[in-house]
Amino acid sequence: MRTLLKNARLVDPEAETEATGWLLIEDDMIADLGTGAAPAGAEVERDCKGLALAPGIVDIGVKVCEPGERHKESYRSAGLAAAAGGVTTMVTRPDTMPSIDTPEVLEFVARRANEAAPVRVLPMAALTKGREGREMTELGFLLDAGAVAFTDCDHVVANTKVFARALTYARSLGALVISHPQEPILSAGAAATSGALAALKGLPAVSPMAERMGLDRDIALVEMTGARYHADQISTARALPSLRRARDHGFDITAGTSIHHLTLTDKDADEYRTFFKVKPPLRAEEDRQAVLAALREGTIDLISSMHTPQDEESKRLPFEEAASGAVALETLLPAALGLYHAGDLTLSQLFRAMSLNPAKRLGLPCGRLSKGAPADLVLFDPDAAFTLDRTTLRSKSKNTPFDGHQMRGKVAATFVKGEIVHEAP
Amino acid sequence: MSFSKSHLLGIEPLSPTDIVTILDLADSYVDLNRSAVKHSEALSGLTQINMFFENSTRTQASFELAGKRLGADVMNMAMQASSIRKGETLIDTALTLNAMQPDILVVRHPHSGAVDLLAQKVNCAVLNAGDGRHEHPTQALLDALTIRRVKGTVTGLKVAICGDIAHSRVARSNVQLLSKMKNQVRLIGPSTLMPSGFESLGAQVFEDMKDGLRDVDVVMMLRLQKERMDGGFIPSEREYYHRFGLDAEKLSFAKHDAIVMHPGPMNRGVEIDGELADDINRSVIQDQVEMGVAVRMAAMDLLVQARRVRDARGPEEVMV
Description:
- The complex is a heterodimer.
- Chain A has helices at 75-84, 103-116, 139-144, 160-173, 196-201, 209-225, 240-248, 259-263, 285-297, 312-315, 332-341, 347-361; strands at residues 2-12, 17-26, 29-34, 44-47, 52-55, 57-62, 87-92, 120-123, 150-151, 176-179, 192-193, 205-206, 228-231, 253-258, 302-304, 377-387, 406-416, 419-423.
- Chain A is an alpha/beta fold.
- Chain B has 11 helices and 9 strands.
- Chain B is globular.
- Chain B starts with 15 loop residues before the first helix and ends in a 7-residue tail after the last helix.
C-alpha cells in the first residue's frame, strides 16, 4: 500500500528546511520524499494544498491515569487526544496509583495501552520503588519489559546515596534516567515562584534557585557515575549556566522544558486560577525568555506537554490545596505554534524540539522526515485560528490553562505507522 | 451612593473613595456604639453566617456583635469541627450554606484565596475575615479608622509595620490600604520573615528597628506566632525581643506623639513591652478593638445597601 502526500510544506528538523514537495508512504515507512515532480503509481494520492507536514510529535512525560485514576484519563482518551494533537508517540509517566515500578505492572499497562490508544505508547518506569526514593526498582527486568527510561517524576530522590547507586546501576544497563531537578526541602509546600506576586497573594513560594541547586547536585552525580541523564523541566534562567557548563564538559546530559513554562508566566496565575498551577510553578517573564533562548541555541533540547490530567474536584480548591498540572496533548502544537507566530522559533526548530530530539534521546527511529523512517506524521495548518473551548478536549480531564484563548494551528491529519489515526472533519 | 462592591474580599479591589466611604459610616457607628441603646435596624430580618475555618475569638466576636447591633440574625459556625473534617469540600460547604439563603457570609480560612473561591459560588455578600497570608481587610480598615480618629488624617503619614511580615495577612492588607491612601509605609522585621518583592508595592524595607522607626507617626506591631519562635525563622524569643520587640527605647526614635498599634492577641515581652502596651498615652490597642466593631458594621451595612440598589435596578445591570 502506497500513499502519496503531495503539495505539502515539508518541515524537516534534521535538514532545518521547509520546502514544498511530496512524501511517499509505503506501508508503515516513509519510502521517499522530494521537492521535484511527484512519482506516479501510488494507490492513494492526497493533495495537501500547501499545509505543513512534519514528523509526528514524540512527547516525553505524558501522564495517563491508569492504573488508579481512570476517571481522570484512560489510554483510550489520552490516545485520542494525542492523535488529535499530532502526538504520534506518548512516552508515559509512572506516577500512577500505584506507581509503575514492577515488570508485571509495566507489561500489563503497555499491553492495555497499545490496544486502546491509536498512537504509539512507550512506558517509562519508576526509578525507585513506589517513587519513595529508598530502594531502586528492578531496572534490568523493567528494561527488558520495555521501559524506555526511568524516572520518579516530580518526586526528587532526596537521598543522594540512593540516587547515586541508582544512577550507577542504570549506567551499567545503558538506561536513561529522567530527573526533576529541584532542591526538595527548599521547595517543599511551595505553590508559586517567589517574587512580588506571590508575596502580594500570600502564597507559599520557592526561589527559582531551588531548581539550580537540584540540577547542580544531579550534574555532580552524573559526573561521578557516568549515567545517561535527562532533566525533565528546566524553567529558570538561574539553572542555565550550570546546564551549559555540564554540556561543555561533555556529560551525557539533556534537558527539556514544558510548553506551559514556554508560553505562560506567574502573572497568568493571578486571581488564584488553579488551572495555572503546575509543577514547578510558573516563572517570571525573564525566565521564560531565557528558557526560549536556551531552546533556540540548543542548551535545552526538547519541549514536552507534561500532560497531567486533574479532575474538577482536584482543582476547585484554594490554590495551595489544589492539585498541580495541566492537560496539554491537544494544545501542545497550537501553543508551540504561538511561539512560531511570535517569531521566537522556526517551524523546524519547533519540530527539532518536539519530534527529532526526543526521538534521538530515546534511540527511536521516528521524529525525522527521511527515507526509511517510520511514517509517523502530522499534517497541519499553522495559521488556522480558533478559540479553545476546554469542553471540546478529548481528554477526560479538561484542566487546560488555555480555555478561551485565541490560538492558531489546526491538525488536518495524523499518521501513525502510515495509517491515518486522526482526520479533521 | 458610591459604594457598589458585591463583596469585601480584600483591600486590593477597593478605591480610596470606597475606603473613605466605609470609614465615614464607621464613624457614625462609633457614636451609636457609645450611646445607651446600641441598636440599628440596618440589617433587620437578614441572616448573617460566620464561617470560621480557623480558630478566632476576637474577630468572630467582633463580627457577631456588629451583626447583632445592626439587627441581623447571626449564626456562628465553627468549621474546624464540622463537615470539612468529614471530607466535604469548601465549595460543597458553601453551596450547602448558600441554600439556606443567608444575606451575609463572614469567612475566615487558613488558605490564601479560599474566600475569593467561595465568593464565586454563593449569591450573598461575602466578607473576608482573613484568608491565609493573603488579606484581612476589616483589620486594615479598623486600623485606618483608629489612625484617622487619633491623627485627624490617614494620608501623608509615616507608618512602620513591624515583625513577621511574611506570614501576616494584616501586613498585606495594611500595606495596600496605607499605600492607596498615600502614606509612606515602612516594613521592619528579621530578613527571614520578610518576603521578597514588597519593595515593588512601594514599601521601604528595614532590618533595624531604630532606622525604620525614625520619625514615624504610627508603629504597628504584628503578632509573632509561637510556632515560628524557635530556631526556624529566628534564633530565640529573647533575641527577637532584643532586636525587634518594641520598648520605650526603640519607640524614642519615632515621633514624640507616635501611636502604638497591635492587632492582638499580644505576646507581651516578645514583640512588645507589656508596660508600653498599657501606656494610654501611646498605645491605641484598646481603641482598635472598639473601632473593629464599628468598621464591620459599616462594611456589612454598605454591602447590603449596594446589593439592594443592584436588585432594584434589575438583573441586566448587575455588576460583578
